[in-house]
Specification:
There is one protein chain. This protein is of the alpha/beta class. It has 12 helices and 10 strands. The strands form 3 sheets. It has a 6-stranded parallel beta sheet with strand order 7-6-5-8-9-10, sandwiched between helices. The protein has a two-stranded antiparallel ribbon with strand order 1-2. A two-stranded parallel ribbon has the order 3-4. It starts with a helix and ends with a helix. The mean pLDDT is 81.
């Protein structure tokens, strides 16, 4: 509750008063309603408006255990589909061949690290964290790691022989081969890890958006652990070791969610949700899915 209040105050400053409350107030004023009585705080991710349908582009299986969707809340799971052909370069293909051979012959675990698409405001924080992660990984036995730096120049003299740095990687291609991902907890990445059945260590980079909540969901479901972006390399190393020791349990929980997500038929779910929202036009699902992936 305190974090949501802080988020609202920040939004008022950044968007010159146009935060979530402002839009709800405008909606209520046009209809002669009291906005405080129509707000629905129990919807996923953001406060909603009672009686106003809401579409959540995330499967219900990702919500906190025990969470029940509101009557006008429609969860839609669209499997991650993205053209990554421009990222599958010879250097990446060669690297993956080497790492997968080490997994096969040496039994090492493959860890993938990425903080998603970075904004300039997060560069310094991200740089410090990535340096600490690289140092922690260099001291972790029996692992190999791919660290996507997002193009940030890192102030580190050298990396361990088990750590490979790349500006960016084809995430959907890489994830099925991974044993663990260290992530900022963006909704897209958490969905893609769940889809691939990959346990996570979540370090929220931006406390003012959905990342802390997504990290809490990961921990609540037993898909992995969460930490703080300012953790030292020693603390990160302990967290990695703890996660590796519990991989079978995390993987079991991830696979259960993966199964639930794979059973959902996007066209049917979208059609049902759109009908609930009042859409009756034939073919709505195909256009909705197509537009959501572009």
């Amino acid at each position: 509750t305190q974090k949501r209040a802080w988020k609202r105050r920040m939004e008022k400053v950044v968007f010159m008063g146009w935060d979530d409350d402002a839009f709800q107030q405008r909606y209520a004023a046009k209809r002669g309603l009291d906005w405080k009585t129509i707000t629905e705080p129990n919807m996923s991710f953001y406060d909603g408006i009672k009686g106003l349908p809401a579409v959540v582009l995330a499967p219900q299986a990702m919500e906190f255990p025990g969470h029940r969707p509101q009557a006008d809340e429609h969860h839609i799971h669209l499997p991650a589909l993205r053209d990554e052909s421009h990222l599958i370069a010879p250097g990446y293909t060669q690297l993956m061949g080497e790492l997968l051979e080490r997994k096969r012959t040496q039994g090492v675990k493959l860890i993938y690290v990425s903080l998603g698409t970075l904004s300039h405001g997060n560069y310094q924080k991200a740089e410090r964290f990535l340096v600490n992660v690289i140092r922690a990984l260099g001291k972790t036995p029996d692992v190999v790691a791919v660290v996507a730096t997002g193009g940030i120049p890192l102030d580190i003299a050298e990396t361990g022989p088990n750590v490979r740095l790349m500006d960016s990687v084809p995430q959907l291609d890489l994830l099925p081969h991974c044993d663990l991902m260290i992530t900022h907890g963006g909704l897209g990445t958490v969905k893609e890890c769940s889809q691939a059945g990959v346990p996570m260590l979540v370090y929220p980079l931006n406390e003012e958006v959905d990342q802390p909540g997504n990290g809490a969901r990961v921990a609540a479901h037993g898909w992995g652990l969460r930490g703080r972006i300012g953790d030292s390399s020693a603390r990160i190393a302990k967290r990695i070791s703890h996660a590796l020791s519990r991989l079978p349990k995390y993987r079991e929980q991830c696979c259960q969610t993966q199964t639930k997500m794979s059973q959902a038929k996007p066209e049917q779910v979208v059609d049902d949700s759109l009908r609930g929202l009042g859409f009756t036009e034939v073919g709505s699902a195909e256009r909705f899915i197509h537009s959501s992936h572009h």
